[in-house]
Amino acid sequence: MLTPQRQQQILQQLAEQGQVLSKQLSVLFEVSEDTIRRDLRDMAKAGLLQRVYGGALPASAATATFSQRQQVAVASKRAIAKKAAGLISAGQVVIIDGGTTTTELLNHIPKDLPFTVVTHSPTIAVGLADFPLVDVVLIGGKLFKHSVVAVGAGAMESIARIQADLFFMGVTGVHPAAGLTTGDYEEACIKRALAGRAAETVVLASAEKVNAASAYAIGDITIANTLVVEAGTDSAWLQAVQQKGVVVLSD
Question: Relative to the CA of 121, which of 134, 142, 203, 215 has its CA 20 to 30 Å away?
Fold first, then answer.
């Protein structure tokens, strides 16, 4: 079997099973594990999968630029954001992460709802400028342009002073085994710190993030108290998430 044919079949296995193991693939294709590892390395370089210890997981499609991500899974993000907005109550302190799904959240928040938003996203802060009853606290730091959010030591210092009711977290991958992941190390650290300052963390997982993984772990999936997904999400995947004690809401 030629290498391109084998790699195409690996992708098919990945789509059907949600993960692949190097040892099993070497038996299936009757080649060495070194050959399989080389295949996975080349496919990861092409952005086709995410390598993990012993095999690979589906790569998240949510790692493009901010403007490009605004065009990905638009209907899914809209439905999820609408459902998530209903979790906000008057008087709460709510952390809103940066990202295209959380930006969509602003379109579904009632203009007459009084609460406080803490965010490290200038985009989110500006989007709330015309909400007369929403107080906005903007966390500063070094601008990570890919996601248009503040990161670094300054941001971490400010985060340590927050006590919030809710944190709406954006991720690039949600996988029962790999957990919550994103494409940048510093951003993963910021998200983990924000989750530690909120009584409840709500993860917004649009279609392209479900059962996918990126390079940097935010943490185990149980960091999320609640996961908001699109209606029709794979039932086996939902069951695997719920077995870990995470509440799942769908639009």
Answer: 215
